[in-house]
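Researcher: Structure prediction, please.
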Amino acid sequence: MRTRPRDTRIPWTSLVLAAVAALLAALLAPGAATAATGGGAAKPKESRPVYSYDRAVRESVWVDIRTDGDGDGRSDRVAVDIIRPREPAEQGRRIPVIMDASPYYSCCGRGNESQKKTYDAQGKPVQFPLYYDNYFVPRGYAVALVDLAGTNRSDGCVDIGGRSDIQSAKAVVDWLNGRARGYSSRTGGSAVKAGWTTGAVGMIGKSYDGTVANGVAATGVEGLRTIVPIGGISSWYDYYFAKGAALYDGGPDGLSDGIESPEARGHCQAVQRQLVEGAPRNGDWTSLWEARDYVKDAAKVRASVFAVHGAQDLNVRTKHLGQWWDALAQHGVERKIWLSQAGHVDPFDFRRDAWVPTLHRWFDHYLLGYDNGIEREPMADIERAPDQWSTDRVWPPSGTRATTLRPAAGPVTGVGTLGLKPAPAGTTAAFTDDPKLNEGDWSAHLDEATPGKAGFTTGPLTHDLRLSGSSTVRLTVTPSTASAHLSAVLVDLGPATIRNYAGDGEGIRTLPASSCWGSGTPGDTGCFKDTAADTEQVGYTVFSRGWADLGHYAGGKARPLTPGKPYSLTLDLAATDHVVPAGHRLALIVAGTDAGLIEPAATSPRLTVDLSRTSAQLPLVGGWAAFARATAGGHRPVPHQSTPPRGIRPVAPSHIPAA
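Model: Predicted structure follows.
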């Protein structure tokens, strides 16, 4: 995937709308921090915690989503638990809404402490998971937590990123803007209108919740001003498959079964069958996946996007981030990014002190219209080492170019080189797929001629080399059997201190002490356990990965392979931003099954790689010239001091995009 900076300016119509929103905010929002202007007028800069949290209105509304997923002859209603400051409504002022739409509020919980919704004896909401309510309600925001259809207190059926999921949240945005119907109960009840809101909505959430935010934004729904997807999926096919190679031993039906309410599980068998039949385990592209691909609809996105992802997220891989980011850039969507070294972790748990005020300013700007300058600040924050961050004005940075690197045979048998010159015709490398080995095993033995991989390295770099964006690897291989899976990984060969992304906390440690973020009540304290970086000393770092089933060499449908016949295909490697420092080496490894991350093929073939027809397109900052400069002095491989193979943990059997 070619990556280059895009024009991120907002269309003039958006500027007009922002100016109007700012004027309304100045007129309607009390308690804001202000800065005096030359004319004596006050211009809002920051919302302040001037409203009472304990007196806040806490209510539940059931919104008609205009679908009948459970086939009971009635339009489904989804439950929306709302908390909002009482004072603005008493004063006739309207406020914006922060929304988190999730399937996890009763089955699994949200956040590092797996908080669930709680209710009093009358069914009135008591605990709103996470800190959004505690922090933002006193600052003049409403917080709406939506139970997706088929979960917790909602009607309907879970359909894993399909129409039901997306309509569950979109209908709530419509209701907040007077375009849908809300009721005081799940069945019957009186009509409820949202006369207390401006209709400006910001969606936020991690994992499945962030995925729903992506999907709703891709509908172009009016009123959705911004989204903050954290570790979100952009195409559900790419969650379950990598170009035909299965990433898990189950499909969306298994996830649905894990998150549906007991009531929904009893009457959603038809939807379950559709999930099974529409998502065959052979990895073929079907209409089910087409309907769950949000990238194709990036042109419809009206909202700004603040994307957060872990560069080492092995649950929702950064391929999701890369393809979504590039599509948004192509269509001029205003956007911002935080890319950490962690796995599937919320920024509240890896950079809390910086995250909360940044999110505050983001919502103040896009939902209240405050001119606080956040949209003019550097676009990207990148974690370079645990708790060490750098910024870029645009991302990928200016001067990033897709540069073709080529593997070749090296002076040591079985240990190849990686450079700019193509290998001579007829040059090959071979390996045998060993499903017991993973990228850690390959990397630890990169300077050895082991049978399970083909490895290619530069010499020690004389200057830092930065890769920023998405890579591809084009392979021509000849299998010895009728099925084959392939992996390609990029490795930084050299010692480093990194976040322990393969550990239980995926790069963080949860501490016994707690701190409070906003106001609280006995039932919802707003206090959360502190965290710290969980670090590890390593001798190499795998920083980008891609996989494929060779049977999908020609596209979306698997085709039979003929043993002994060469096939060409391209592996898409996950987006990243990594600096290989001077003195380290950059390596490309090509192998079969990456144990713990993809499922093995039906056979374990020997694969012969035609090096003259194999190449890697890498997004190098500075392009070809930067690589030539960094590798000046030759490509003589030197042994690296390896560490024991890193244990890659498979995602839990439920395959839930973890809370």
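Model: The radius of gyration is 26 Å.
Researcher: Thanks, that helps.
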